[in-house]
Amino acid sequence: MLPVDDLGEPVAVDQPQRVVSLVPSITEAVVVSVPASLVGATDYCTHPSDLDVQRVGGSKYPDVDKVMSLHPDLVIANSEENRAEDVDRLRANGIQVWVTEAPATVPMALKSLRRFFAMAWDLEPDWLTQAEDLWRETKPRKLTALIPVWRRPWVVVGRATFATDVLRRLGIENVYAEDAERYPRPTLQELNDKRPDLVILPDEPYVFTHDDGPESFPGLPYALVNGRHLTWYGPSLVEARASLERALDYGQG
Fold first, then answer.
1. Does residue 192 register a pLDDT over 50?
2. Which of 21, 172, 208, 223 is a good FRET partner for 148, with 20 to 30 A between their CA atoms?
């Protein structure tokens, strides 16, 4: 019986030699763990910083023809970021596609990665066991926070998201954690009316800075954080906890 991906689809992943990743955080995980196997990645696969492989376009709209021209024996996609029609086209052309789900928690993400590397390469990366150890603890709640990820229009982190669980494990409760949407689009007035203890401003996908973002939340303390550490799951989780704890200890007012 073939192994199945996160959506339950069978995928033959027996020691893939030519991998194209359409998921930036998993791109990093593959490069760190099985570097010789990666032959293609998206324009948004920014880590490792010296990554030198064929680029295949954006995460949501990759150039499928370019992907196929690389003759991969495995393509890694994500159910939230990648279009079903692109996955179907790749499979119709005989290319195996491993589709991941957008993880709602840190343990869910790490479990998915553990299963993927075990099935594809019979591998347990050192960074994976380190990340599991580092993120096992959940601190008692001490702050509430609002987490914008875009402006014009404003978009914030909502329910059942990886970032919400990352912050919860650091003792910070997302004020939109119970919202009906995973990424709500409230008005700025509504955001300010929430009166969180802290506004957390990441540097991706929107690049918030001290001069771009905090002025929209007068009177509220804020902290700038590394967006990759907040939202990527993979080797970055080894350094993410300490990085976020340092950044969130120094909210600016």
1. yes
2. 21
Strands 38-41 and 19-21: parallel
DSSP collapsed to 3 states, the chain: CCCECCCCCECCCCCCCCEEECCHHHHHHHHHHCHHHEEEECCCCCCCCCCCCEECECCCCECHHHHHHCCCCEEEEECCCCCHHHHHHHHHCCCCEEEECCCCCHHHHHHHHHHHHHHHHCCCCHHHHHHHHHCCCCCCCCEEEECEEECCCCEECCCCCHHHHHHHHCCEEECCCCCCCCCCCCCHHHHHHCCCCEEEEECCCCCCECCECHHHCCCCCEEEECHHHHHCCCCCHHHHHHHHHHHHCCCEC
Q: Which residues of 210-245 are buried (b: 16+ CB within 10 A; e: fewer)?
A: eeebbebbeebbbbbbbbbbbbbbbbbbbbbbeebe
143 pLDDT more than 70: yes
pLDDT in tens, 118-136: 999 999 999 999 999 999 9
Residue 1 pLDDT? 66
Query: Are 59 and 23 a contacting pair, CB within 8 Å?
Result: yes
Residue 17, CA atoms < 13 Å, CB-side half-sphere: 1
CA–CA separation, 16 and 37 (whole Å):
7
